[in-house]
Specification:
Blueprint (H helix, E strand, L loop, with lengths): L1 E5 L4 H12 L3 E6 L11 E4 L5 H5 L7 E4 L11 H18 L4 E7 L21 H15 L4 E6 L1 E3 L3 H11 L4 E2 L8 E3 H11 L8 E5 L7 H12 L7 E2 L1 H14 L1
Parallel strand pairs: 1-2, 1-4, 2-3, 4-5, 5-6, 6-10, 7-9, 8-11
Length: 256
């Protein structure tokens, strides 16, 4: 099968691309920048998902599309445009090129905070701008007429720079954000890739939405404690309010 992966150079995307190649698929990647560590057998196209003409070049003779390209940064004024306009372009090009299946990577955050395990048919209740942009994209896809599969993940964990920084912060005794009693549902990156592989070309996945997450539902405090136990360091007892953590994050991002 000829498959296009937008955002194929990211943490999840690279693993997905390698898995698809291992299964014998013809894989193309669309990314903002060229990356040296992508497999040589993958065809790479560079550009911004908001640039429809650049994106169109990657759609030649494509059977299925994984749309993973996103902006997570709430402080980025272009975040919504990247997520929503980028998805709009992908959807329109899927229709234009008669793509058989669009697999969209979304977030469980579109449902907001819940006090019980959420089902796929729960109503939308996004809180952050990022979550709202994912909701808009989902709604657009569902109304498009394109054959789709939506995969919503919880917080993805695995060996990458972000989690390395989290571990370093735990070592240094970074304060617990909020009470620590809020649920902090995780999912391992390879489990997400496994589900993405399962829905490809699967008739049971046509026009369906799936959640992928670990079986257990730890709290934020539980996760922090597990990290400290694995690192063999003492867990901090200090707490800071959520609003202060958010403000610190925005200031830190603005300085970068």
């Amino acid at each position: 099968m000829r498959i296009l992966v937008t955002g194929g150079t990211g943490f999840l995307g690279k693993r997905l691309v390698q898995m698809l190649l291992d299964k014998g698929h013809d894989v193309s990647v669309f990314s903002r920048h060229m990356h040296d560590d992508l497999p040589e057998s993958a065809t790479v196209h560079t550009g911004d998902v908001r640039d429809k003409n650049a994106l169109r070049k990657a759609f030649s003779k494509i059977d299925a599309v994984y749309h993973l390209a996103i902006c997570l940064n709430e402080a980025d004024p272009e975040m919504r445009d990247i997520n929503v306009t980028g998805t709009k372009n992908v959807v329109e090009l899927c229709k234009e090129n008669k793509v058989k299946q669009l697999i969209y990577m979304s977030s469980s955050g579109v449902l907001g905070e819940t006090d019980r395990p959420s089902r796929e048919d729960f109503p939308y209740k996004p809180k952050t701008q990022y979550e709202k942009s994912k909701m808009e994209s989902e709604q657009m896809i569902k109304k498009s007429g394109v054959s789709y599969t939506i995969v919503r993940t919880t917080i993805i964990i695995g060996p990458n720079l972000i989690w390395a920084k989290i571990f370093e912060a735990a070592k240094k005794g970074f304060p617990i954000i909020g009470s620590g009693k809020n649920y902090f549902h995780l999912v391992y990156v390879d489990d997400v890739v496994s589900l993405l592989a399962t829905v490809l070309g699967n008739p049971k996945a046509a026009n369906q939405t799936f959640h992928v997450a670990s079986k257990d539902t730890p709290t934020y405090g539980d996760v922090y404690r597990i990290i400290c136990e694995e690192l063999k360091c003492e867990m901090t007892k200090k707490h800071i309010p959520i609003w202060l953590a958010y403000m610190i994050s925005r200031v830190h991002t603005a300085k970068r």
